[in-house]
Amino acid sequence: MSLYIENKSINSNTNDSLLYKAEDKNIIRLQKADPFWIARNFNLQKRDAIQWTIKRAFDIVASTIGLIVASPVFLILSILIKFESRGPVFYKSKRTGLYGKEFYLYKFRSMKQDAELYEDKVREQFKEADSIMYKIEDDPRITSLGKFIRKYSLDELPQLFNVIKGEMSLVGPRARATRDLWLYKKWHYIFFATVPGITGMWQTNGRSNLKDFDKVVKLEYEYITSWNIILDFYLLLKTIPAVILGKGAA
Fold first, then answer.
1. The whole model's pTM is what?
2. Which of 136, 248, 126 is nearest to 199 (CA)?
3. Which end of the chain is more exposed for a tag (fewer CB within 10 A), N or C?
4. Mean pLDDT value of segment 72-96
């Protein structure tokens, strides 16, 4: 099965028409009324049910073991977060996953509870940044502990619960914020052909240093169209040095 984008260039900002080419060579045009059409038709689960079953089984086993092993870290971070600033231990954000299904992604809270007090500075820097990939340098909302846990991706440990629930996978495209979907071109909805991952092509190729959304699109597209279980294991191994060294962390 192959996917074709009717676009002179994948970097084009003017053409959001996307085509799907099935094995029988029939061409079907994406209907703008249903942006998740391409995601449902480019179904990774149906492409290789055996590999998908292995992927899901590995997610459950590895995440369960990870939660058990990391339980002391959960306890320590929970105490430190509560000690450093007011507010909940966990932060939740609405994301859009497989075929457009919404869910709450969980992280350890890394920002101050009164982050809205810094809204003016955020807005000022936001104007000069990419509307999808923006990153606030020296964000005053982030706590001292927050900077540390973000650098080494410890804030993402609670996402193991999302993996066990089936909302995410250990490996996959980046989880997309629901509030940003209105900024997407129709062909960007290929992201939702599989469950989002804690790590993936984006995380292992620069993480937060990768600010070009078109490049991110290419990386995620490459993952989805060439996915197999070996690629997942490769990306997991590639994630280890990136996390240990804190490369490209937010």
1. 0.80
2. 248
3. N
4. 94
Round to whole Å and give the CA distance between 64 and 46: 26
The answer to whether 94 and 115 are in contact (CB under 8 A) is: no
Pairing of strands 27-29, 169-171: unpaired
Of 160, 146, 164, 161, the residue nearest 89 (C-alpha): 146
Asked if residue 171 has pLDDT above 70, the reply is yes
What's the count of helices (H) and strands (E) in the chain, helices before strands? 9, 8
Angle between helices 229-244 and 49-69 (to 10 degrees): 30
Pair of tokens at residue 22: 């099935």
Strand order in the sheet with 2-4: 2-4, 19-21, 27-29
pLDDT for 131-154, tens place per residue?
A: 566 666 677 788 999 999 999 999
Residue for token pair 């231990």: 89
Please count the other Cβ atoms lying within 10 Å of the Cβ belonging to residue 164: 16
Residue 196 pLDDT class (50, 70, 90 cuts)? very high
| Residue 185 identity (one-letter amino acid) | K
If you ran DSSP here, which 8-state letter would residue 31 be given?
P
Buried b (16+ CB within 10 A) or exposed e, 167-181: bbbbbbbbbbebeee
Phi, psi of 195 (to 5 degrees): -75, 145
207 band by pLDDT with thresholds 50, 70 and 90: low
pLDDT of residue 216: 83
Helix, strand, coil distribution of the chain in percent, nearest 5: 50, 15, 35
* Annotated domain spans of the chain: 44-244
